[in-house]
Predict the 3D structure of the following.
Amino acid sequence: MEAVRVQQIVVKDGEVLVTGIPWKKGQAVEIIVLSQPLKTKPPSRLTVRQFRQSGLIGLWKDRDDIRDSATYARSLREQGQKRGEIEFDPVR
């Protein structure tokens, strides 16, 4: 049994058009259709310069309700850990 790989993008729901296969009219073939996972873009990383220019540093400096930003950030991480929403590795 000869196998030919053809990759297509689904343009219309429920339909895929396969062309360019090497077999002739009347020849029996078996077609197996496998979906491919969507490619996700890996998260981008900021350079030190980009991070400094991002506005994140000093973001809380003018807030009257936050006296100690390190303590505040720590409490947010702890709340997130309790809910399981934020992964925090203290070794990093």
